[in-house]
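TICKET #2291
ISSUE: user wants both folds in one file
ATTACHMENT 1:
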Amino acid sequence: MAPPDGNIHTNLDPLPLTIRDGMIAMGIVGVISSISTLTLLIFIAYRAIFWRRYYEYPIHANQIIVLIYNLLLADFQQALSFVFSFYWISQNKLVGPSHACFAQGWLIQIGDVSSGLFVLAIAVHTFVNLVIQKPISHKIFATSVLAIWAFCLFLTMIGPILSKDDFFIPAGAWCWFNETHENERLYLHYLWIFIAQGGALTIYISVFFYLRGQLAKSSKLQISSVTESVRNATGPYKGKGTTTTTIFGPSNANDSFAASRQRIMRTARYMVVYPFAYVCLTLPLATGRISSMAGRQPPLVFFPIAGTLMASCGIIDVVLYLTTRKALVRGSLGVKGSSSGRPRFGIGGLLRRGPRSQSIRLGGLRDEGEEDRIPVGVEAPLDGIIVVSKSVFTTTDTFQSSAMSQRTDSLQSMSVGREEVPQSWNKL
């Protein structure tokens, strides 16, 4: 631990050549990230205000876009903090405390923590909608977003409020927590960064393998034949029935089904990229800081390199959003003039359960006008051909009419008598 006047030893006056070159790299990447994230934020805000010109439904109805918007806002603050590098270069020194040093330390703290927590929030949202399959109400969602920002603001301001000395001073190649506040560094910053990193990775990996498991099951059912005999020996009458369902997968249907599987897996890989990108870009600095707390100080040149990686978080998230935006927006909001159908909010999955069939659909991220539904159980792939013959025989005439009248509409639509459909072919 540094002595009480440790801030004197962290000042860099003049700047070493390696730090100066590193600050140039951090500043350039910070400017690019700031401009790209700010431009995308303005674009999304404009489309949200004038959504009627472009979409069938308001953009704020898509919860995943709202979360990505907040992630970009966090990335913008983090990137903006590294633009201060040009100020230190112009001064040829990094000294504190000062107003510029306080501003840089504040932006790094709130930007880093908030970006990590919103990456975790996107992971939790994906897991709840796709695996647990419970929709998140607008009230709970809005409260959660506000709570994340309130928590990040608390973690940022509690240190300067309670500190009796200068809290944000030079720390490596930028201003951050004073070295005398090692506990604050751990409990106000690194603890939540590691929770966000580990939690997001764990959730996304589990979602990825969940999708792979469902898709592996469904791929075995492209060409199948299922025959079921049902004997009913209870109630006021006895009867028996036979249902024969033959599912054919022609070459074009197989190709369509394979393409649908590939689309779902590509979407799953996009999900995994978010946490992996965040971890890869932020873990080096977090590891270096923890190493410093353990008494193993990394070389000074390490911090500009790690800072450049951190500053690029905004660029990476912008690229990821632009990569998935078309499918995300068209599939969930409905583009004017498109045939995307009814709205699908978020990227949550829908698992339709029934006594005879299951299907999994990943909403939100899909191509325009497409229905990415992956069958699980005894459903046929989309665009496949089904031949259904169903015969029901009862031994008691008294209850026959009442039993048929009590049959649900959905079951009636599935039950086709032999004389109604004599081995007819119905395309899905």
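ATTACHMENT 2:
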Amino acid sequence: MKSTEIANGILKAIAAVCGFLLLLYIIYELQSIVAYLIISAIVALIGRPVVILLRKTLRVPNILAVALTMLVIAALFAGIIMLIVPLLTEQGKNLYLFDFGIIQNEFDKLYVMLSEYFGTTKKVVEDLVEDATLNKTDVNGLGKDLVPSFIKSILQVLDNIGIGLFSVLFISFFFLKDSGIIQRSILTSVPDVHRMKTMRSLAKIKNLLSRYFVGLLFQLFILFSFYAITLILVGVENAVLIAFMCALFNIIPYLGPMIGAVIMVMFTITSNPGVDFSTIILPKVGYVMLGVTIGQLIDNFFSQPIIFSNSVKSHPLEIFLVILGAGLLFGIVGMMLAVPGYTVLKVILKQFVSKNKIVTALTRGL
């Protein structure tokens, strides 16, 4: 091999690496736009079955079917925001009036009882409680300082969400109106040799992801039902809305349910200001945790296996390992995108590396 060919090869490799790094930099700088595009694609995949239903069943023109679908989606988003803001404001007021010293005293009593039961001397217990007990002014000031800043942060986030919501709805409309826009964009950079395989992959990906996100909505509805019933029976104010908000956190695998449980416990506590903590609030918290546990058991052993096996054709253990690995590598965002990303990867591998034994085993159901 001539030295000029080697030099050209090195230059091409360097150019490819530099181009890839430049692409990553551009994506990083434009991450908001990239996020809007990804969310819009997800919204379009969720709305796709509705558009198809309107077009094929009711013979509605494509543009009208897309407009009706987007109108429903926009109304849902607007309704959620309009319901959540008053809820946060109301609960913030309750939290502001809540005496956190009551909780501190109850935990001190519980700590003393447990310590005496396990044989710790009274003096040691009293010293530990005295060291652990927060200053009353600091404890009461916790709610008064934390709540206004928390509500202010929430309102700022909602303001940013408003801008993002408009962008997502606008982009989603055109994704639904012209469903081939993404496919054409991808095919422009694909060699003619792989054109047919790419088209088959895109069609399969679109179908599987659409089924996955619809199944995910059904999963969230099941959890919402359990949460709502639990909170209503316990007597928490705005139970349906709180259940809906907490069910949405289950979009984050494994971590989301814990966040939702903490939020439900907080709302249960702040919904009952001025009542005895040990005889009224604590039992209610226990009932809420019991309802959450039952809901999660049904979700983990019934809902998720059926949804994953039927929508993305993957085994629950396979999905668990993928989510765990994505979480370790990319954090919460990786956990949320693990299943759709893994599904896309499986479809591509099946089309382009179908003879590999490992790929054949993983993609047998596709």
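RESOLUTION: both attachments delivered.
EXTRA DETAIL ON ATTACHMENT 2: The two ends are 44 Å apart (CA to CA).
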